[in-house]
Amino acid sequence: MPKLTKRVLDEARATDGETILWDESLRGFGVRLQPSGIKSFLVQYRNAGGRSRRMTLGRYGVLTVDEARKRAREVLAAVAKGNDPVADKQSHRTAPTFAELTKQYLTEHVDRRNAATTAKEVRRVLDRDVLPALGGMKAINVTRADVLKLHRSMSDRPRHANLVVSILSKVFNLAEIWSIRPAGSNPCKSIPRYPENSRERFLSADELGRLGRAMALAESEGLPWVVKPDAKGKHLPKDTETHRSAVCREAINIIRLLLLTGARRGEVVSLQWDHVDLDRQTIALPDRKGGARRAHPVSTAAVELLKGINAVDGSPWVFPRPLDSKHHVSVEVVSNAWQRIRRHAGLDDARLHDLRHTVGTYAGQAGVNAFLVRDLLRHKTTLTTNRYVNRDDDPLRDISDHVGERILAGLSGKPSGKVIVFKAGS
Fold it and tell me: What is the pTM of this model?
């Protein structure tokens, strides 16, 4: 059993089938000789359970003897610490890709713990922004540099870039819990987030009036075409004011109900008649995290709006698709309608979610307490609500009616009458 050297290996040949030459200077280090002439370095050891293991280190010619011996020492040093390099290598080979990890994250965590709207948004972010970059990598191989590169690629969208890292951080935290990655290996740790400018937007009485007129026009006549000034085409209308296109009536009513309830877009879009109790003036809305539905009082104005909507036979939806009543109006249709309506109203910077801010702000301006506005908007805590309100104690339905009356007055462009300020004990 000679010490393996270049000279020894150059002269070595397989004598009877596959032959192994062991190194005399490093126990467990050897070279496998094959009749074909291929010579491969290997290391052999026993793991903590007493099982004999062999690991191929590489071919002679690609590795020198000294390089192979160094690798063998590293393997044997790991074994001395209680590790099993062969098992680790096999585990890495069968380890899930990042795409497989995200699938587990969605099914075992997001779908069970989050509202359907949140789950849909997380899927959208992963599919569009993350999986194209990281999906094919082994989950265990994703590094801080990979995450940092992805984060920087979205520097023009700082809020979204930070959201992506937050989602990734949760994915990798769970990967550690599921023993897919070692403890403390989250690559999102210490990734600096971009500063975000807080954006609070609500509609003033004047803006509500413009919005109301735009919705009324959209419903009665449709909205004028919008043609870019530099657009070219012989079939483009010269007088866009007389060329109008319809806006989905269901989408218009969804926008109205959002303003009258402060509900979230997805909750109103997917509202079913079984969730509505017109006699008790309540709507059953889901818990924010996808829990059971609970009845929430709504304003008289919201009830009147719902009474004016005719249910479609055989459809459970309050807002069914016009040509397919088995499904509700899509979020995309509502978003498109909002884009057109807000543009006509001159509210280009207003988001659909700002209607919810408007309800919260109007309730806060009435002086109601944080706990009631929390319930009105169904926030989990008053931390989010505090930006809207002062603390008092008043009935939730009175708040809904007061805010609903003010919203309706704004939409119609009429004075809202006397301003009611709710006070503790009233």
Answer: 0.54
Q: Which of 27, 62, 91 is the last residue of a domain?
A: 91
Is residue 72 in some structural domain? yes
pLDDT for 412 equals 80
Single-letter amino acid code for the residue at 176 = E
> What gap in Å lies between CA 97 and CA 139, rounded to an integer?
5
Domains: count for the chain:
3
Q: Is the model's pLDDT at 296 over the cut of 90?
A: no
318 lies in a domain? yes
Average pLDDT of the chain, as a whole number:
84
pLDDT at 250: 96
- The half-sphere exposure of 78 on its side-chain side, counting CA atoms within 13 A, is 16
In order of 201, 202, 203, 211, 251, the CA distances from 347 in angstroms are 11, 11, 9, 8, 17
**297 and 388 share a domain?**
yes
pLDDT (0 to 100) of residue 132: 97
Domain check: are 226 and 353 in the same one?
Answer: yes
Which tokens is 392 given? 């008092």
What token pair was written down for 395? 């009935």
Distance, in Å, from the CA atom of 269 to the CA atom of 257, rounded to the nearest integer, reads 10
- Extract the tokens encoding 404: 């609903």
Domain range for 154: 98-177
> Which helix (DSSP H) or strand (DSSP E) does residue 294 occupy?
strand 293-297
Percent of the chain clearing pLDDT 70 (strictly above): 81
**CA 224, CA 394: separation in Å to the nearest integer?**
44
Residue 62 sits in a domain whose CATH number is 3.30.160.390
Task: Kindly state the helix (H) or strand (E) to which residue 56 belongs, with its residue range.
Answer: strand 52-59
Residue 390: predicted pLDDT:
41
Looking at the fold, whether 65 and 33 belong to one and the same domain comes out as: yes
3-state secondary structure of 399: helix
Q: 188-215 pLDDT, tens per residue? A: 998 999 987 666 678 888 998 999 999 9
